[in-house]
Amino acid sequence: MTSGNRVTIAQVARDAQVSPMTVSYAFNQPERVAAATLERVLASAAKLGYTGPNPAARSLRQGRFGTIGVVLTEPLTYAFDDLAANRFLAGVASACVEQRLGISLLSVADDNPVQVITSAAVDAFLVWTQPDDDPVIDAVVHSGVPAGILGGPHVPGLLYVSMDDRAAGKVVTEAAFAGAQRPMVLSLPFGRHQESVLLHGPDPTDAGYPVTRHRLAGAREWCLEAGIPWDLVRVAVLARNSHAEAAQTIAALLDAPEPPDAIMAMSDEIALGALTAAWERGVPVPEALSITGWDGSEPATRAGLTTIEQSLYEQGRALTLAVLGITDGVPEPPWTLVRRTTTRT
Amino acid sequence: MTSGNRVTIAQVARDAQVSPMTVSYAFNQPERVAAATLERVLASAAKLGYTGPNPAARSLRQGRFGTIGVVLTEPLTYAFDDLAANRFLAGVASACVEQRLGISLLSVADDNPVQVITSAAVDAFLVWTQPDDDPVIDAVVHSGVPAGILGGPHVPGLLYVSMDDRAAGKVVTEAAFAGAQRPMVLSLPFGRHQESVLLHGPDPTDAGYPVTRHRLAGAREWCLEAGIPWDLVRVAVLARNSHAEAAQTIAALLDAPEPPDAIMAMSDEIALGALTAAWERGVPVPEALSITGWDGSEPATRAGLTTIEQSLYEQGRALTLAVLGITDGVPEPPWTLVRRTTTRT
DNA sequence: CTGTTAGCGCTTTCAT
DNA sequence: ATGAAAGCGCTAACAG
To answer: Measured CA to C1', what is the nucleotide nearest A58?
Structure first.
């Protein structure tokens, strides 16, 4: 009663003068037990401070945990700092509450990415987008536990959900770049540990994150079709999906010669960072600088950002239900370009 | 290898021609095992698809889970929607990552609040503020697992962390109400399931949530000292800590006779809702309407809101470390009134 | 409606 | 450096 869940079914059984099984029934299927017995058992349990079956023993016996694991990249605070991750998790949470499952947040550490997975007490994994060939993916697939991934990579053995980033990339690039002289892309990271860099017309396949790669490919494709030499398009690759880093990067570029006059940003977060930089410098948006975002977050709506809208919340829900086998697969998520006040067209 | 974590230590042991104990050592204390043996064991494990000890069995044997449970009110999406909860969780997460612990999000359902607690596979509980006498509190205390609560109630057996809401309430009420003719409080909920209501000088002890109660008590105390009849002070009690609900409530009051000219709001979230309502109506802030918030969130800073700043992140961290026994207790969290542009003084 | 048996997979303890 | 024994607390399967 005082420290730890020390009281066992056996002790309660002894006190109540019944067998352990009856105690088990009393807690799990009370209707199976005679009213008088039930009362006696519960009284003994209360007296001894027994609050219910030990979860570890029950899980061992039943072979299930009643918990779903969400695999996030370190640091775990990302889950709470990042808008997109936040919405995804909210969707996962909504499905888990319905299914009476707990959520375990798993942080992939650098020193041993695999152990977090293999030692997780969960019935399924949901993985937040990872770079291709990341060891975590392999660990999840080999765990033998049902699993799904948002944003790829798309590998056998993992349920996959992701919007058509390439197609949307073309559309949003057009919205951003139409009529521009010095267009640029503000890119999400290419890999897990990478400094921010300024590239010129990089090969999209250099990006290890599928989401980044596909969005970049879409941008390139539109440029090629529109006759804009891809080599001349600058791509500022950030180290993180961070408002502050984006603001700083764009501020530097706006202060330098040949400042950009169009920015296709791969997330609302960094688009808003760019917007902040422009605003601080008095650069009129969209007249002198058009900016687009991605995701359709609350702050983007308030800021009047032209952006690609998708529901990470719904994708989180759908992936969760599919991984649990409640629905059969996940449809490709819908998206739309929402034109607001940060683009010229 | 295909479905579930079916391979056991025993099978690997047989294949590697060693005892189960050696396999256990190979995974838990590899340095204890001869190099050649280790290699053989790992080869067998890889061959059979054994990825490591079954977490349930290990937890049962060791009596610990390596996980900390965070108890949140239903719906669980609150954790991701609410700014304050979000910061608290980020702080918890930072401490858990350091300690190599997982985080389990537990949603308290209405139908059986206790079972979620008793069946949680965790080594400690962190509870997000609950109403006094809520059954969840009791369940947590009786679980025998170390536990802490943010925002109260302050009960024996639970570590407690909360800023001095009453003292700050006085200070912020002064900032909001100074020189006002028709001051009002925009209040967080009084209880878990309650419609929104408009009260006149309510007794603070009617509020079941300690945070609400103490902030209201602070407001009342300042009014009494300043000679403002508390009975004349309107208190709009919201059903949820929601921007939208706050905006709607304040919009209605601004459109009615005797609109408020000062609002002390108990969170940034609802203060910003009030600000939106004022802004939509063209009510000049702070000239015709002063507004204060609480928490010192990002959006509040951007909006220039006068507010009480505290770090829920640090409080989350501190409470986690204390509950784990790594630090000894939690100091009372610091706070400051930050005057910005939404108040007259 | 209640009880008996058996064993989930692992690791602590104590040898060797 | 490796192994044997024992049991963590529970519940599925099967009586009665």
So the answer is: D10
